[in-house]
Design brief:
Layout: E1 7-14, H1 19-34, H2 39-56, H3 58-61, E2 66-74, E3 77-84, H4 107-114, E4 117-123, E5 126-134
Antiparallel strand pairs: 1-2, 2-3, 3-5, 4-5
Length: about 140
C-alpha cells in the first residue's frame, strides 16, 4: 500500500469473520482520535466490506489470507479502502433484488446508500473496495 495524504492508519487482519469486529474497533479508535463526525456510518460500512472480503475473496478462502484496511481523512472527506486478495469468480456489484428486510446481500447496497462515493478496482495484489464520506 502507498501512503496517502491524511492517512490516519492502516491495519491488517486475518481473512476470517472474527476479523470484522477487530477491523471495526481499529477504525473506531482511529476515528475517535481524529474526532470524525461520521464514525457510525464509517463503522457500519467497514463492517460490511470486511465481511464481504472474507466471504467472497481469496483472502477468506486461502490459508493465511489477509484483509487490509486503510483510513485517510483528506480535507474533511473520510476515505476508507478495504483491500483483499480478490476473486476471479466474484466482483463487487449491487444486487438488483436487494430487500431492506433481508439478513444478507445488503452490504454494497448499504455502501451505495450511505457513502458519498464508492467504487472498486483490481490491483496486481488483489482488489480494493473503497468508500468516501464527506464531512458534515
Amino acid at each position: 500500500m502507498t501512503m496517502t495524504p491524511g492517512l490516519l492508519g492502516q491495519g491488517e487482519f486475518p481473512g476470517e469473520l472474527s476479523s470484522v469486529p477487530k477491523a471495526r474497533r481499529y477504525v473506531r479508535d482511529l476515528l475517535d482520535a481524529a474526532g470524525h463526525a461520521q464514525a457510525d456510518d464509517a463503522l457500519l460500512l467497514v463492517s460490511e466490506l470486511v465481511a464481504n472480503a472474507v466471504r467472497h475473496s481469496d483472502s477468506g478462502r486461502r490459508p493465511g489470507g489477509q484483509v487490509h484496511v486503510a483510513v485517510a481523512n483528506c480535507d474533511g472527506t473520510l476515505h476508507i479502502d478495504v483491500i483483499d486478495a480478490g476473486s476471479p469468480e466474484h466482483r463487487p456489484s449491487l444486487r438488483a433484488d436487494t430487500c431492506i428486510g433481508s439478513c444478507t446481500g445488503r452490504g454494497l447496497w448499504l455502501v451505495d446508500e450511505i457513502a458519498s462515493a464508492w467504487g472498486w478496482h483490481d490491483t496486481p495484489a488483489g482488489r480494493v473496495v473503497w468508500f468516501q464520506l464527506t464531512g458534515q
